Amino acid sequence: MTVEGRRVRVSNLEKVLYPETGTTKRDVLEYLQAAAPAMLPHCRDRAATRKRWPDGVEGQMFFQKDIGDGAPDWLELRTIQHSDHANRYPLVNDLPSLVWLGQLAALEVHVPQWRFGRGDEPRHPDRIVLDLDPGPGVSLIECADVARLVRDILDDMGLVAVPVTSGSKGIHVYAALDGAQSSDDVSRVARELARALEADHPNEIVSSMKRSKREGRVLIDWSQNNASKTTIAPYSLRGRARPTVAAPRTWRELGSRHLRQLEYSEVLERIARRGDPMATVAEATGRADGGDVSRDRLEIYRSKRDRRKTSEPIPDAVASAGSGVSAESDTGPVFVIQKHDASRLHYDFRVEHDGVLVSWALPKGVPTDSRQNRLAVPTEDHPMDYRFFSGTIPKGEYGAGTVEIWDTGSAAIEKWRDDEVIVTLTGADDGGLGGRRRYALFRTRNDPKKPQWMIHLMQDQGSDPSPGASRRGDSRASRRTAPRTSESSGGRTTSSKTSHAVAPMLATRGRSGELSALEPNDWAFEMKWDGMRAVIAVTGDGVRVTSRNGQDVTETYPELASLGAALGADGVVLDGEIVAFDARGAASFSRLQRRMNVTSDREIRELRRSIPVWFAAFDVLGLNGQDATALPYRDRRELLEEVVDEVAGVPIFAPPAFEGDAAAAERTSRELGCEGVMAKRLTSVYRPGTRTSDWLKFPHGTATEVIVVGWRVSESDPDGIASLLLAVPGESGLTYAGRVGTGFSNAERRRIRDRLARVERQTPPVDSVPPADRRDARWVTPKLVGDVSFREFTDEGRFRQPVWRGWRTDQSVDDVRAPEG
């Protein structure tokens, strides 16, 4: 799925996760997408602990804190240091992250009452929660009575309380805080509140965790305010027999004598009808976050500098919120780019945002050519006064070296997100920018050991840039104008034009058991699509489709002429597979066969309606005239995901790669009905026309290309064939490999007979044809390639139970390889 521009792999959509109601994973994902606007504000920037039920709620539950393996690169992570180890937690800050958790059957999401600040530093809690757990013999109605008592005390404290029916047995009562107290402080308040209520209502309420005291009472669990504790997130599903939800409610609802826990469909109806009853808590905690952000933004900056040794501006903690020199209030945000000759010469790119200068280091300088992106390394936020700084940082101090202002001026911010910034800079008349420049900075990876961001010079759009002003200003299109340089390829790109007729790179067939033995850090895994290999070049002149053997087949597939509408670049050369899908949604080579080699305009129009084709793009060979084949697979894959959009009505998609997860790729390939799995070495460059072990193919079944060397005459239909005679390459040339007599319709048998008659010859082109197969045989020049599936390839070099799959006009005789036994 493409979710808000992110690729999220999903599978097993029809798996039933709640057997009692028949609720499937598809239903769960649809709920999460619909509930996200209400749910995400209550999860934002909080460490998410998950409870997973991969086999449904009647199966085993997995409790997961650390993120583990297989998380997508774009997922935001934060680290919590425990006494003897550190865990990395995901943040559920956006819809793609929520959908990703749903795909893992992480039905329950639990979060603390505090949020992360910048980096891994936890803030003070921004809300308090009291968990009301009814003991044996206590109904939900009686639990609601206690919730109202809690509300009254919170009201007396000046806190607005909101109830949440937990989706399990009890009720949670939340109230927003101002972020001024620590978790220990809030826990003490919650404990005293619970004890006070117990003292006033000893027969109805208990604050002790001892089970022996819960009979006939409601436990007020105050401990979930502890910094190490979590509570089920509002709007999270529960892993119970039925798909209930931790549902925010109104106090009026809690007064109903028919109060009960709600299921997900009921919750969606309530959201649509009355919105989120807990929205006021989310808004209040957001305001508390704003105070924390401004208070903490310069902590890292200050920790790296000694005001006694450097002349750099070092504001104290009180003055860190903009330092009183922000230009944003009168002339708008500002920027500065500083040339920094330290241990290595680089440029520091700084833009004002939220009272500080958000900063990136540019090791290779400021981009001056829109065809080449450059590395941008995020650094700590700097104070506003730093835009005036130039001079020498003493030896031995952080950043020692000389700093000079390269350019400075105003900044017009179009977009500011955690993973992307678009800004137009207007520099000084004598500055290094030479006037006005528009830049996009975008995050590529979360791993701090690898480059995280790139910077790209965009095309300016006039004096008043605004989001969506043109397609080139689109957030994703901004990053797709050129192949990126790569550290592993020496940071080089070439300027030569990419030929449209690039011969595709070829894969070697992997051996049995080899797939699971591949080192997961070295390989990515893709689906092997049962279609026709093609290279597609999209330029200003249109679209050209070239088959594997170099034939121009553009007119055969006219629907592919629209691909340019889904590509965020002026010119692209893509490698991929033309596929046709059957009724089950699986790629079907037999259906595609009916589209291949058709030349009649009328027949093409008819088949286009009944058998539409798609292009599964899996590699980028060139972008805007730049050759991308020298880039490693990892970088080409990143370009692919950025250049290919999924646009309604345009038949192209970029299938996901399963980096480091061969088992998941193989499972998904079988579930989708794909032909097999492709393994591609992450560091491999693209070698046109070369068969290499950097790409390995692992087909699920036994299908292979064959060379047709003759046919046997049909006794029942003199215009058709009885079977085809096959050959494969041997040690000393072609060797006979048997005959295939199934997989044809009567009409196909006649069409094959007409085709073979044009290349008929008098003598057999292979030796060792058994007498039974030679009887009534007609021979042809060995130049036509077909495709068969088979049960076994025997030690004698014969196909056992072969079935005809169709012609391979996209391949030549030289491409055929003998199958393994």
Description:
The chain is α+β, with helices and mostly antiparallel strands and 821 residues long. The chain folds into 5 domains: 2-111, Alpha-Beta Complex (DNA primase, PRIM domain); 127-261, Alpha-Beta Plaits; 299-479, no CATH class; 506-698, DNA ligase/mRNA capping enzyme (D-amino Acid Aminotransferase, Chain A, domain 1, 2-Layer Sandwich); 703-815, Nucleic acid-binding proteins (OB fold (Dihydrolipoamide Acetyltransferase, E2P)). The protein has an 8-stranded antiparallel barrel. A 6-stranded mixed sheet has the order 13-14-10-12-11-16. Strands 28, 29, 30, 31, 32 and 33 form a 6-stranded mixed sheet that branches. The chain is globular, with a radius of gyration of 33 Å. The model is unreliable at 289-295, 317-330, 446-451 and 461-498 (pLDDT under 50).
Helix content range: 10-25%
Number of strands: 44
First and last CA, distance = 39 Å
Largest sheet: 8 strands, antiparallel, barrel
CATH architecture of the largest domain: 2-Layer Sandwich
For the record, the count of structural domains works out to: 5
Structural class: alpha+beta
CATH fold assignment of the largest domain? D-amino Acid Aminotransferase, Chain A, domain 1
Coarse morphology: globular
Oligomeric assembly: single chain
CATH C-level category of the largest domain:
Alpha Beta
CA radius of gyration is 33 Å
CATH superfamily of the largest domain: DNA ligase/mRNA capping enzyme
Name the beta content range: 25-35%
Number of helices: 15
Rounded average pLDDT: 84
Strands in their spatial order, largest beta sheet:
17-18-19-20-25-24-23-22
Low-confidence stretches: 289-295, 317-330, 446-451, 461-498
GO molecular function: ATP binding; DNA binding; DNA ligase (ATP) activity; DNA-directed DNA polymerase activity; exonuclease activity; metal ion binding
Family: In the N-terminal section; belongs to the LigD polymerase family.
InterPro entries: DNA_ligase_ATP-dep_C, DNA_ligase_ATP-dep_cent, DNA_ligase_ATP-dep_CS, LigD_ligase_dom, LigD_PE_domain, LigD_pol_dom, MtLigD_Pol-like, NA-bd_OB-fold
Catalytic activity: ATP + (deoxyribonucleotide)n-3'-hydroxyl + 5'-phospho-(deoxyribonucleotide)m = (deoxyribonucleotide)n+m + AMP + diphosphate
